[in-house]
Task: structure prediction
Amino acid sequence: MLETTGLEGRSFLDIGSGSGLFSLAARRLGARVHSFDYDPDSVACARELRREYFPGDQEWTIEEGSALDQNYIKSLGHFDVVYSWGVLHHTGEMWRALENAVLPVAPCGRLFLAIYNDMGSQSARWRWVKKTYNHLPRLLKTPFALVVMAPEEAKAMLRSVVTLNPGEYVKSWTRYDQNRGMSRWRDIIDWVGGYPYEVAKPEEIFDFYRAHGFALTLKSGDAVWNGRW
Result:
């Protein structure tokens, strides 16, 4: 997506690094990496990846921090690539986080973002689902998730029967972790419970970053913002 086969000699900031997999990929490509996440468990996971694959590495920094903390973001300096995949729409203040993401982009650097698309009533429905799930008592969370996902699961099962390939539906549960690194049920809970949840139309994001002096590069449907000149 960044249209490069290597990141040697470049700096890479992973905003909301989660498990650290993207940071690990960037480090393997030769970048000097700084990873941060608001969740201490995610920070611990990323540190475990570093311990396993880059023990004692001084070129990969991992710490706890918030995308909403402007002073913290400013303290990091500037990076050739600022990367935040599927994170800023979960902060509760997405536009503030998008604004802060501008700060660490070096001159002629690149900002790579992924957020949820505004799908109108469908997005509004999912916002209600996610908010409701998070406010339910623990005992009711699983039944609620089952009810919410039942229609989609029923359609998937029906498609497999109609195409005379019911085994595909079974595999979608038994082998799901081979592609996603988690069980299908964990992924369902991750989706249903993913709140805060904000969305934006593509043109809103385009206009927002153009106003900050960025130029848009499109690659395979994803947006990469080239830094200000």
User: Anything to note?
Assistant: The chain has two domains: 11-116+198-226, 121-192. The chain has ten helices and seven strands. The chain has a mean pLDDT of 93. The beta strands are 11-15, 32-37, 60-64, 79-85, 105-114, 215-219, 222-226.
